Amino acid sequence: MHPRRSAQEVLLCDLCETVPLQSHCELCNINLCVNCAGKHVSDSSKRHKVVPFLHRKSTTNYPKCPKHADKQCEMYCEKCDVPVCSTCVTSGKHKGHDISDVLEKLSAKTESLQKDLEELESRIYPRYEEMASDVQTEKSELETKYGKLTTAADQQGEALHREVTAIVNQRKSDIQEMKNKHLDALNKNTDEITQRITELRKIIEDLKKILNTKDVSLTSTYKSRNGEFRQLPPKVRVTLPSLSPQKINTEKLREMFGSLSPLSINTEQGYTMKSAEAVSSPPVKPLLDEPRVTATINSGYRHGLFSVSCLSEDQVWTCGDNETMKLLNLQSKLLTSIQTKSGNKPTDIAVTRDGDLVYTDGNNINLIKNKQIQTVITLQGWRSRNVCCTAANDLLVTMDSDDRKPSKVVRYSGSTEKQSIQFDDQGRPLYSSGGYKYLSENKNLDICVADYRASAVVVVNQSGKLRFRYTGHPSNTKQSFDPRGITTDSQSHILTANYHHHRIHILDQDGQFLRYIHCDLELPWGLCVDIRDNLFVAESRTAKVRKIQYL
Fold first, then answer.
1. pTM for the complete prediction?
2. Which residues have C-beta within 8 Å of that of residue 504, sequence separation ≥ 6?
Protein backbone atom coordinates (compact mmCIF):
# COMPACT_ATOMS: atom_id res chain seq x y z
CA MET A 1 0.00 0.00 0.00
CA HIS A 2 1.14 3.56 -0.67
CA PRO A 3 2.80 4.96 2.51
CA ARG A 4 0.65 8.10 2.48
CA ARG A 5 -2.67 6.32 2.10
CA SER A 6 -4.74 4.47 4.67
CA ALA A 7 -7.03 1.57 3.96
CA GLN A 8 -9.79 4.13 3.31
CA GLU A 9 -7.56 6.10 0.90
CA VAL A 10 -7.45 9.26 3.12
CA LEU A 11 -5.25 11.93 1.50
CA LEU A 12 -2.54 13.22 3.85
CA CYS A 13 -0.69 16.48 4.24
CA ASP A 14 2.28 16.87 1.89
CA LEU A 15 4.49 18.31 4.68
CA CYS A 16 3.92 16.16 7.79
CA GLU A 17 2.54 13.16 5.87
CA THR A 18 0.59 12.00 8.94
CA VAL A 19 -2.51 14.20 9.28
CA PRO A 20 -5.34 14.38 6.70
CA LEU A 21 -5.10 17.42 4.42
CA GLN A 22 -7.61 20.29 4.57
CA SER A 23 -6.03 23.15 2.63
CA HIS A 24 -4.08 23.81 -0.54
CA CYS A 25 -1.45 26.50 -1.28
CA GLU A 26 -2.01 27.65 -4.84
CA LEU A 27 1.37 29.41 -4.97
CA CYS A 28 3.44 26.39 -3.89
CA ASN A 29 0.97 23.80 -5.23
CA ILE A 30 1.05 21.66 -2.08
CA ASN A 31 -1.64 20.18 0.19
CA LEU A 32 -1.65 21.09 3.92
CA CYS A 33 -3.26 20.09 7.22
CA VAL A 34 -4.43 22.77 9.75
CA ASN A 35 -1.18 22.90 11.72
CA CYS A 36 1.10 22.88 8.69
CA ALA A 37 -1.02 25.56 6.96
CA GLY A 38 -0.35 27.96 9.88
CA LYS A 39 3.40 27.32 9.74
CA HIS A 40 3.40 27.59 5.94
CA VAL A 41 1.82 31.09 5.76
CA SER A 42 4.16 32.37 8.51
CA ASP A 43 6.89 32.49 5.85
CA SER A 44 6.55 36.17 4.85
CA SER A 45 9.09 35.90 2.02
CA LYS A 46 6.32 34.63 -0.28
CA ARG A 47 2.73 35.61 -0.92
CA HIS A 48 1.16 32.26 -0.11
CA LYS A 49 -2.43 31.73 -1.10
CA VAL A 50 -3.93 29.01 1.10
CA VAL A 51 -7.51 27.95 0.26
CA PRO A 52 -9.73 25.04 1.35
CA PHE A 53 -8.69 21.92 -0.53
CA LEU A 54 -12.10 21.54 -2.17
CA HIS A 55 -11.95 25.17 -3.42
CA ARG A 56 -8.51 24.87 -5.00
CA LYS A 57 -8.22 25.98 -8.61
CA SER A 58 -7.69 23.37 -11.33
CA THR A 59 -4.42 24.95 -12.42
CA THR A 60 -1.59 23.47 -14.38
CA ASN A 61 1.18 22.04 -12.22
CA TYR A 62 4.05 24.13 -13.58
CA PRO A 63 7.52 23.20 -12.29
CA LYS A 64 9.11 25.55 -9.76
CA CYS A 65 12.05 27.61 -10.98
CA PRO A 66 15.29 26.41 -9.31
CA LYS A 67 16.81 29.92 -9.57
CA HIS A 68 13.79 32.07 -8.64
CA ALA A 69 11.91 30.41 -5.78
CA ASP A 70 8.74 32.47 -6.12
CA LYS A 71 8.36 31.76 -9.85
CA GLN A 72 6.98 28.90 -11.90
CA CYS A 73 8.50 27.77 -15.20
CA GLU A 74 5.83 28.47 -17.77
CA MET A 75 8.26 28.56 -20.73
CA TYR A 76 10.94 26.30 -22.23
CA CYS A 77 14.35 27.29 -23.66
CA GLU A 78 14.92 25.12 -26.75
CA LYS A 79 18.66 25.81 -26.95
CA CYS A 80 19.42 25.11 -23.27
CA ASP A 81 16.78 22.34 -23.19
CA VAL A 82 15.45 23.44 -19.76
CA PRO A 83 12.19 24.93 -18.35
CA VAL A 84 12.50 28.65 -17.54
CA CYS A 85 10.41 31.31 -15.77
CA SER A 86 9.70 34.86 -16.95
CA THR A 87 12.54 36.24 -14.78
CA CYS A 88 15.00 33.79 -16.39
CA VAL A 89 13.98 35.01 -19.84
CA THR A 90 14.22 38.72 -19.00
CA SER A 91 17.56 38.29 -17.20
CA GLY A 92 19.40 38.08 -20.53
CA LYS A 93 20.89 34.63 -19.98
CA HIS A 94 18.60 33.21 -22.68
CA LYS A 95 18.85 36.14 -25.06
CA GLY A 96 18.45 35.07 -28.69
CA HIS A 97 17.34 31.57 -27.69
CA ASP A 98 14.12 30.04 -29.03
CA ILE A 99 11.52 30.04 -26.26
CA SER A 100 8.43 27.82 -26.40
CA ASP A 101 5.49 27.04 -24.15
CA VAL A 102 6.44 24.50 -21.50
CA LEU A 103 3.09 22.74 -21.86
CA GLU A 104 3.62 22.25 -25.59
CA LYS A 105 7.06 20.81 -24.85
CA LEU A 106 5.60 18.60 -22.17
CA SER A 107 2.95 17.40 -24.59
CA ALA A 108 5.56 16.52 -27.23
CA LYS A 109 7.74 14.69 -24.73
CA THR A 110 4.73 12.89 -23.29
CA GLU A 111 3.77 11.75 -26.80
CA SER A 112 7.32 10.48 -27.35
CA LEU A 113 7.25 8.65 -24.01
CA GLN A 114 3.89 7.14 -24.90
CA LYS A 115 5.28 5.84 -28.20
CA ASP A 116 8.30 4.36 -26.44
CA LEU A 117 6.05 2.70 -23.88
CA GLU A 118 3.77 1.33 -26.59
CA GLU A 119 6.71 -0.13 -28.52
CA LEU A 120 8.22 -1.64 -25.37
CA GLU A 121 4.93 -3.21 -24.30
CA SER A 122 3.61 -4.35 -27.67
CA ARG A 123 6.76 -5.34 -29.58
CA ILE A 124 10.04 -5.39 -27.68
CA TYR A 125 9.09 -6.90 -24.31
CA PRO A 126 6.91 -9.69 -25.81
CA ARG A 127 9.78 -10.62 -28.14
CA TYR A 128 12.13 -10.93 -25.15
CA GLU A 129 9.57 -13.03 -23.30
CA GLU A 130 9.14 -15.24 -26.35
CA MET A 131 12.89 -15.67 -26.69
CA ALA A 132 13.22 -16.53 -23.00
CA SER A 133 10.41 -19.06 -23.35
CA ASP A 134 12.03 -20.64 -26.41
CA VAL A 135 15.35 -20.94 -24.58
CA GLN A 136 13.64 -22.47 -21.55
CA THR A 137 11.85 -24.98 -23.77
CA GLU A 138 15.10 -25.88 -25.49
CA LYS A 139 16.83 -26.29 -22.11
CA SER A 140 14.05 -28.58 -20.86
CA GLU A 141 14.54 -30.82 -23.90
CA LEU A 142 18.31 -31.11 -23.51
CA GLU A 143 18.31 -34.17 -21.25
CA THR A 144 16.02 -36.13 -23.57
CA LYS A 145 17.84 -35.20 -26.77
CA TYR A 146 21.34 -35.67 -25.43
CA GLY A 147 20.25 -38.81 -23.58
CA LYS A 148 19.30 -40.35 -26.91
CA LEU A 149 22.65 -39.37 -28.39
CA THR A 150 24.51 -40.85 -25.40
CA THR A 151 22.57 -44.09 -25.68
CA ALA A 152 23.27 -44.31 -29.39
CA ALA A 153 26.95 -43.65 -28.76
CA ASP A 154 27.10 -46.40 -26.12
CA GLN A 155 25.39 -48.89 -28.41
CA GLN A 156 27.71 -48.07 -31.32
CA GLY A 157 30.75 -48.28 -29.04
CA GLU A 158 29.77 -51.70 -27.67
CA ALA A 159 29.22 -53.07 -31.17
CA LEU A 160 32.52 -51.74 -32.48
CA HIS A 161 34.72 -52.47 -29.48
CA ARG A 162 34.90 -56.25 -30.07
CA GLU A 163 36.35 -55.88 -33.55
CA VAL A 164 37.89 -52.46 -33.76
CA THR A 165 41.19 -52.64 -31.82
CA ALA A 166 43.35 -54.06 -34.62
CA ILE A 167 41.89 -51.69 -37.21
CA VAL A 168 42.40 -48.69 -34.94
CA ASN A 169 46.05 -49.59 -34.43
CA GLN A 170 46.57 -49.85 -38.19
CA ARG A 171 44.81 -46.56 -38.79
CA LYS A 172 46.95 -44.92 -36.11
CA SER A 173 50.06 -46.15 -37.89
CA ASP A 174 48.78 -44.73 -41.18
CA ILE A 175 47.93 -41.44 -39.51
CA GLN A 176 51.36 -41.22 -37.89
CA GLU A 177 53.02 -41.80 -41.26
CA MET A 178 50.89 -39.07 -42.83
CA LYS A 179 51.63 -36.78 -39.91
CA ASN A 180 55.36 -37.29 -40.46
CA LYS A 181 55.01 -36.45 -44.16
CA HIS A 182 52.94 -33.41 -43.25
CA LEU A 183 55.58 -32.33 -40.72
CA ASP A 184 58.37 -32.85 -43.26
CA ALA A 185 56.55 -30.61 -45.73
CA LEU A 186 56.03 -27.92 -43.08
CA ASN A 187 59.68 -28.16 -41.96
CA LYS A 188 60.82 -27.70 -45.53
CA ASN A 189 58.52 -24.69 -45.87
CA THR A 190 59.83 -23.34 -42.54
CA ASP A 191 63.42 -23.62 -43.78
CA GLU A 192 62.56 -21.57 -46.87
CA ILE A 193 60.82 -18.91 -44.79
CA THR A 194 63.65 -18.86 -42.22
CA GLN A 195 66.21 -18.35 -44.98
CA ARG A 196 64.25 -15.38 -46.29
CA ILE A 197 63.92 -13.99 -42.75
CA THR A 198 67.69 -14.19 -42.33
CA GLU A 199 68.14 -12.25 -45.56
CA LEU A 200 65.56 -9.69 -44.44
CA ARG A 201 67.33 -9.16 -41.13
CA LYS A 202 70.64 -8.64 -42.96
CA ILE A 203 69.02 -6.11 -45.32
CA ILE A 204 67.36 -4.28 -42.40
CA GLU A 205 70.69 -4.15 -40.54
CA ASP A 206 72.50 -2.82 -43.64
CA LEU A 207 69.82 -0.17 -44.21
CA LYS A 208 70.11 1.01 -40.62
CA LYS A 209 73.89 1.29 -41.00
CA ILE A 210 73.52 3.35 -44.18
CA LEU A 211 71.04 5.66 -42.48
CA ASN A 212 73.26 6.00 -39.38
CA THR A 213 76.53 6.63 -41.29
CA LYS A 214 74.86 8.99 -43.77
CA ASP A 215 77.46 7.78 -46.28
CA VAL A 216 76.62 9.42 -49.60
CA SER A 217 78.31 6.71 -51.64
CA LEU A 218 76.43 3.91 -49.88
CA THR A 219 73.15 5.78 -50.16
CA SER A 220 73.58 6.53 -53.85
CA THR A 221 74.44 2.93 -54.71
CA TYR A 222 71.57 1.44 -52.66
CA LYS A 223 69.14 -0.71 -54.67
CA SER A 224 65.76 -1.57 -53.14
CA ARG A 225 64.89 -5.26 -52.78
CA ASN A 226 61.44 -4.65 -51.27
CA GLY A 227 59.73 -5.72 -54.48
CA GLU A 228 61.58 -9.03 -54.35
CA PHE A 229 60.37 -9.72 -50.81
CA ARG A 230 56.78 -8.66 -51.47
CA GLN A 231 56.58 -11.92 -53.41
CA LEU A 232 56.04 -14.16 -50.41
CA PRO A 233 57.52 -17.68 -50.27
CA PRO A 234 55.32 -20.55 -51.49
CA LYS A 235 52.72 -21.60 -48.93
CA VAL A 236 52.15 -25.30 -48.31
CA ARG A 237 48.50 -26.27 -48.60
CA VAL A 238 47.68 -29.63 -47.02
CA THR A 239 44.37 -31.40 -47.25
CA LEU A 240 44.10 -33.28 -43.99
CA PRO A 241 42.98 -36.91 -44.19
CA SER A 242 39.54 -37.78 -42.91
CA LEU A 243 37.82 -40.95 -41.75
CA SER A 244 34.67 -42.01 -43.55
CA PRO A 245 32.76 -44.39 -41.24
CA GLN A 246 30.49 -47.05 -42.72
CA LYS A 247 27.73 -49.23 -41.25
CA ILE A 248 29.05 -52.01 -38.99
CA ASN A 249 29.31 -55.57 -40.33
CA THR A 250 31.48 -58.04 -38.38
CA GLU A 251 32.61 -59.96 -41.49
CA LYS A 252 33.68 -56.83 -43.35
CA LEU A 253 34.80 -54.68 -40.48
CA ARG A 254 37.63 -52.95 -42.30
CA GLU A 255 35.38 -51.98 -45.19
CA MET A 256 32.56 -50.94 -42.89
CA PHE A 257 34.83 -48.85 -40.66
CA GLY A 258 35.57 -46.68 -43.64
CA SER A 259 38.54 -45.79 -45.72
CA LEU A 260 41.08 -43.17 -44.83
CA SER A 261 41.38 -40.62 -47.56
CA PRO A 262 44.93 -40.11 -48.86
CA LEU A 263 47.09 -37.28 -47.71
CA SER A 264 47.24 -34.49 -50.29
CA ILE A 265 50.15 -32.07 -50.19
CA ASN A 266 50.04 -29.27 -52.76
CA THR A 267 52.28 -26.27 -53.02
CA GLU A 268 50.53 -23.16 -54.22
CA GLN A 269 52.44 -20.25 -55.64
CA GLY A 270 52.81 -17.59 -52.96
CA TYR A 271 50.60 -14.57 -53.56
CA THR A 272 51.90 -11.04 -54.04
CA MET A 273 51.10 -8.72 -51.17
CA LYS A 274 49.61 -5.38 -51.99
CA SER A 275 51.44 -2.27 -50.95
CA ALA A 276 50.51 -0.55 -47.69
CA GLU A 277 48.37 1.94 -49.60
CA ALA A 278 46.37 -0.71 -51.41
CA VAL A 279 42.95 -1.62 -50.14
CA SER A 280 42.52 -5.35 -49.60
CA SER A 281 39.41 -7.17 -50.76
CA PRO A 282 37.07 -8.68 -48.18
CA PRO A 283 37.30 -12.45 -47.63
CA VAL A 284 35.12 -14.63 -49.81
CA LYS A 285 32.86 -17.40 -48.52
CA PRO A 286 33.52 -20.45 -50.73
CA LEU A 287 30.72 -22.68 -51.98
CA LEU A 288 30.39 -26.03 -50.23
CA ASP A 289 31.00 -29.10 -52.39
CA GLU A 290 28.01 -30.76 -50.76
CA PRO A 291 25.25 -28.39 -49.58
CA ARG A 292 23.20 -29.83 -46.72
CA VAL A 293 19.71 -29.39 -45.30
CA THR A 294 19.95 -28.13 -41.70
CA ALA A 295 16.24 -27.75 -40.92
CA THR A 296 12.83 -28.62 -42.36
CA ILE A 297 9.70 -26.56 -41.63
CA ASN A 298 6.19 -27.93 -42.24
CA SER A 299 4.09 -24.96 -43.33
CA GLY A 300 0.74 -26.73 -43.18
CA TYR A 301 -0.56 -25.51 -46.56
CA ARG A 302 -2.59 -28.29 -48.20
CA HIS A 303 -2.29 -27.48 -51.89
CA GLY A 304 1.00 -25.67 -52.36
CA LEU A 305 3.60 -23.34 -50.87
CA PHE A 306 4.84 -20.50 -53.07
CA SER A 307 6.77 -17.81 -51.20
CA VAL A 308 9.09 -17.60 -48.21
CA SER A 309 10.75 -14.51 -46.68
CA CYS A 310 13.14 -14.41 -43.70
CA LEU A 311 12.25 -12.35 -40.65
CA SER A 312 15.32 -13.67 -38.79
CA GLU A 313 17.68 -16.66 -38.79
CA ASP A 314 15.03 -18.85 -37.20
CA GLN A 315 11.71 -17.31 -38.30
CA VAL A 316 10.21 -17.15 -41.80
CA TRP A 317 7.01 -15.76 -43.29
CA THR A 318 5.25 -18.02 -45.82
CA CYS A 319 2.31 -17.80 -48.17
CA GLY A 320 0.63 -20.53 -50.18
CA ASP A 321 -2.68 -21.84 -51.42
CA ASN A 322 -5.02 -19.75 -49.28
CA GLU A 323 -5.51 -16.24 -47.92
CA THR A 324 -3.44 -16.82 -44.74
CA MET A 325 0.19 -15.76 -44.33
CA LYS A 326 2.07 -17.64 -41.61
CA LEU A 327 5.12 -16.81 -39.47
CA LEU A 328 6.88 -20.07 -38.50
CA ASN A 329 10.00 -21.00 -36.58
CA LEU A 330 12.48 -23.78 -37.42
CA GLN A 331 10.46 -26.25 -35.31
CA SER A 332 7.37 -25.62 -37.53
CA LYS A 333 5.66 -23.77 -34.67
CA LEU A 334 3.08 -21.24 -35.88
CA LEU A 335 3.99 -17.90 -34.28
CA THR A 336 1.59 -15.59 -36.11
CA SER A 337 -0.97 -15.89 -38.90
CA ILE A 338 -2.57 -13.00 -40.80
CA GLN A 339 -5.29 -13.09 -43.45
CA THR A 340 -5.33 -10.77 -46.44
CA LYS A 341 -7.71 -7.85 -46.18
CA SER A 342 -9.44 -8.80 -49.45
CA GLY A 343 -9.75 -12.50 -48.65
CA ASN A 344 -7.78 -13.33 -51.82
CA LYS A 345 -4.56 -15.33 -51.93
CA PRO A 346 -1.46 -13.14 -51.71
CA THR A 347 0.67 -13.43 -54.85
CA ASP A 348 3.95 -12.74 -53.01
CA ILE A 349 5.43 -11.55 -49.71
CA ALA A 350 8.58 -9.70 -48.57
CA VAL A 351 9.99 -8.48 -45.25
CA THR A 352 11.11 -4.83 -45.01
CA ARG A 353 14.28 -3.61 -43.31
CA ASP A 354 12.11 -2.65 -40.31
CA GLY A 355 10.78 -6.22 -40.00
CA ASP A 356 7.30 -5.45 -41.35
CA LEU A 357 5.58 -7.72 -43.88
CA VAL A 358 4.59 -6.58 -47.38
CA TYR A 359 2.29 -8.59 -49.63
CA THR A 360 0.92 -8.15 -53.14
CA ASP A 361 -2.75 -8.72 -53.75
CA GLY A 362 -4.13 -7.97 -57.22
CA ASN A 363 -4.27 -4.19 -57.65
CA ASN A 364 -3.01 -3.51 -54.12
CA ILE A 365 0.35 -3.60 -52.36
CA ASN A 366 -0.15 -3.86 -48.61
CA LEU A 367 2.01 -3.34 -45.51
CA ILE A 368 1.40 -5.18 -42.22
CA LYS A 369 2.64 -3.19 -39.22
CA ASN A 370 1.83 -4.32 -35.67
CA LYS A 371 -0.62 -6.81 -37.21
CA GLN A 372 -2.54 -3.91 -38.85
CA ILE A 373 -2.89 -4.02 -42.65
CA GLN A 374 -2.33 -0.78 -44.56
CA THR A 375 -2.80 -0.50 -48.33
CA VAL A 376 0.19 1.62 -49.37
CA ILE A 377 -0.19 1.39 -53.16
CA THR A 378 -3.28 0.93 -55.33
CA LEU A 379 -2.61 0.27 -59.03
CA GLN A 380 -4.69 1.50 -61.95
CA GLY A 381 -4.58 -0.58 -65.15
CA TRP A 382 -1.94 -2.91 -63.68
CA ARG A 383 -1.90 -5.96 -61.42
CA SER A 384 0.96 -6.63 -59.00
CA ARG A 385 2.80 -9.94 -59.22
CA ASN A 386 5.90 -10.24 -57.04
CA VAL A 387 7.72 -7.96 -54.62
CA CYS A 388 11.08 -7.54 -52.87
CA CYS A 389 12.60 -5.01 -50.50
CA THR A 390 15.87 -3.22 -51.42
CA ALA A 391 18.87 -2.17 -49.35
CA ALA A 392 17.49 1.39 -49.40
CA ASN A 393 14.13 0.08 -48.06
CA ASP A 394 12.42 0.74 -51.39
CA LEU A 395 9.97 -1.78 -52.85
CA LEU A 396 10.52 -3.40 -56.25
CA VAL A 397 7.32 -4.80 -57.78
CA THR A 398 6.77 -6.83 -60.95
CA MET A 399 3.39 -6.19 -62.55
CA ASP A 400 1.29 -7.01 -65.62
CA SER A 401 -1.12 -4.74 -67.44
CA ASP A 402 -4.80 -5.57 -67.15
CA ASP A 403 -4.82 -6.78 -70.78
CA ARG A 404 -2.00 -9.25 -69.85
CA LYS A 405 0.39 -7.87 -72.48
CA PRO A 406 3.24 -5.69 -71.20
CA SER A 407 5.08 -6.41 -67.96
CA LYS A 408 7.41 -4.15 -66.00
CA VAL A 409 9.34 -3.63 -62.78
CA VAL A 410 8.47 -0.55 -60.72
CA ARG A 411 10.41 0.91 -57.78
CA TYR A 412 8.48 2.61 -54.97
CA SER A 413 9.64 4.71 -52.06
CA GLY A 414 6.71 4.50 -49.70
CA SER A 415 3.75 4.99 -52.01
CA THR A 416 5.67 7.13 -54.52
CA GLU A 417 6.78 5.62 -57.84
CA LYS A 418 10.49 6.36 -58.41
CA GLN A 419 11.39 4.19 -61.42
CA SER A 420 9.78 2.06 -64.12
CA ILE A 421 11.76 -0.61 -66.03
CA GLN A 422 10.09 -2.11 -69.10
CA PHE A 423 12.19 -1.82 -72.30
CA ASP A 424 15.81 -2.30 -73.38
CA ASP A 425 17.90 0.24 -75.35
CA GLN A 426 16.26 -0.84 -78.64
CA GLY A 427 12.75 -0.39 -77.24
CA ARG A 428 12.11 -4.13 -76.97
CA PRO A 429 10.30 -5.54 -73.92
CA LEU A 430 12.70 -6.77 -71.24
CA TYR A 431 10.16 -9.22 -69.81
CA SER A 432 7.58 -11.66 -71.14
CA SER A 433 3.86 -11.01 -70.79
CA GLY A 434 2.19 -12.51 -67.73
CA GLY A 435 3.50 -15.34 -65.58
CA TYR A 436 5.49 -15.38 -62.37
CA LYS A 437 8.33 -12.91 -62.09
CA TYR A 438 10.01 -13.23 -58.72
CA LEU A 439 12.76 -10.67 -58.21
CA SER A 440 15.64 -9.69 -55.96
CA GLU A 441 18.11 -6.82 -55.65
CA ASN A 442 21.75 -7.95 -55.69
CA LYS A 443 24.53 -6.49 -53.52
CA ASN A 444 25.82 -4.55 -56.56
CA LEU A 445 22.27 -3.08 -56.86
CA ASP A 446 21.44 -5.12 -60.00
CA ILE A 447 17.75 -6.07 -60.29
CA CYS A 448 17.41 -9.81 -60.97
CA VAL A 449 14.08 -11.16 -62.30
CA ALA A 450 13.22 -14.84 -62.74
CA ASP A 451 11.00 -14.63 -65.84
CA TYR A 452 9.19 -17.96 -65.83
CA ARG A 453 7.47 -17.64 -69.23
CA ALA A 454 10.67 -16.46 -70.91
CA SER A 455 12.66 -19.33 -69.32
CA ALA A 456 15.29 -16.79 -68.34
CA VAL A 457 16.79 -14.81 -65.50
CA VAL A 458 16.83 -11.18 -66.68
CA VAL A 459 19.33 -8.91 -64.91
CA VAL A 460 19.43 -5.11 -65.29
CA ASN A 461 21.61 -2.61 -63.47
CA GLN A 462 20.38 0.00 -61.00
CA SER A 463 19.37 2.39 -63.81
CA GLY A 464 17.42 -0.35 -65.64
CA LYS A 465 19.95 -1.11 -68.42
CA LEU A 466 20.08 -4.77 -69.47
CA ARG A 467 23.23 -6.55 -68.27
CA PHE A 468 22.55 -10.17 -69.28
CA ARG A 469 20.04 -12.98 -69.62
CA TYR A 470 20.68 -16.45 -68.21
CA THR A 471 18.71 -19.24 -69.89
CA GLY A 472 20.13 -22.29 -68.10
CA HIS A 473 23.38 -24.23 -68.06
CA PRO A 474 24.90 -24.25 -71.59
CA SER A 475 25.49 -28.02 -71.48
CA ASN A 476 21.81 -28.80 -70.86
CA THR A 477 20.31 -27.52 -74.10
CA LYS A 478 17.78 -30.37 -74.20
CA GLN A 479 16.39 -29.64 -70.74
CA SER A 480 13.89 -26.90 -70.07
CA PHE A 481 14.77 -24.05 -67.73
CA ASP A 482 11.77 -22.82 -65.75
CA PRO A 483 12.92 -20.44 -63.01
CA ARG A 484 10.48 -19.58 -60.23
CA GLY A 485 11.89 -18.05 -57.03
CA ILE A 486 15.09 -15.99 -57.00
CA THR A 487 17.33 -14.51 -54.31
CA THR A 488 20.85 -13.11 -53.85
CA ASP A 489 23.41 -13.42 -51.05
CA SER A 490 26.27 -11.47 -49.45
CA GLN A 491 28.69 -12.73 -52.12
CA SER A 492 26.47 -11.31 -54.92
CA HIS A 493 25.57 -14.84 -56.01
CA ILE A 494 22.25 -15.18 -57.81
CA LEU A 495 20.22 -18.27 -56.81
CA THR A 496 17.14 -19.33 -58.75
CA ALA A 497 14.83 -22.35 -58.46
CA ASN A 498 14.59 -24.59 -61.53
CA TYR A 499 11.12 -25.86 -60.73
CA HIS A 500 10.57 -29.02 -62.79
CA HIS A 501 14.19 -30.19 -62.47
CA HIS A 502 14.12 -29.98 -58.66
CA ARG A 503 17.30 -27.97 -58.13
CA ILE A 504 18.75 -24.53 -57.54
CA HIS A 505 21.12 -22.79 -59.99
CA ILE A 506 23.89 -20.68 -58.44
CA LEU A 507 25.29 -17.91 -60.69
CA ASP A 508 27.89 -15.25 -60.09
CA GLN A 509 26.92 -11.58 -60.42
CA ASP A 510 27.81 -11.65 -64.13
CA GLY A 511 25.54 -14.59 -64.94
CA GLN A 512 28.19 -17.33 -65.05
CA PHE A 513 26.93 -20.72 -63.85
CA LEU A 514 28.76 -21.91 -60.71
CA ARG A 515 26.96 -24.92 -59.27
CA TYR A 516 23.69 -26.74 -58.64
CA ILE A 517 22.04 -27.37 -55.29
CA HIS A 518 20.07 -30.63 -55.31
CA CYS A 519 19.44 -31.77 -51.69
CA ASP A 520 16.53 -34.01 -52.88
CA LEU A 521 14.29 -30.98 -53.39
CA GLU A 522 10.77 -31.48 -54.73
CA LEU A 523 9.43 -28.74 -57.01
CA PRO A 524 11.33 -25.81 -55.41
CA TRP A 525 9.49 -22.52 -55.77
CA GLY A 526 10.12 -19.51 -53.46
CA LEU A 527 13.63 -18.66 -52.21
CA CYS A 528 15.23 -16.33 -49.66
CA VAL A 529 18.49 -16.10 -47.69
CA ASP A 530 19.02 -14.91 -44.12
CA ILE A 531 21.79 -12.61 -42.82
CA ARG A 532 24.16 -15.58 -42.49
CA ASP A 533 23.56 -16.72 -46.08
CA ASN A 534 21.47 -19.76 -45.19
CA LEU A 535 19.14 -20.56 -48.07
CA PHE A 536 15.43 -21.17 -47.42
CA VAL A 537 13.59 -23.08 -50.17
CA ALA A 538 9.78 -23.32 -50.36
CA GLU A 539 8.80 -26.68 -51.89
CA SER A 540 5.53 -26.32 -53.75
CA ARG A 541 4.51 -29.98 -53.67
CA THR A 542 5.37 -30.87 -50.07
CA ALA A 543 4.56 -27.41 -48.62
CA LYS A 544 7.80 -27.64 -46.66
CA VAL A 545 10.56 -25.06 -46.24
CA ARG A 546 14.11 -26.46 -46.39
CA LYS A 547 16.93 -24.53 -44.71
CA ILE A 548 20.15 -25.24 -46.62
CA GLN A 549 23.77 -24.40 -45.85
CA TYR A 550 25.64 -23.98 -49.13
CA LEU A 551 28.48 -21.56 -48.28
1. 0.51
2. 495, 496, 497, 498, 516, 517, 521, 524, 527, 535, 537
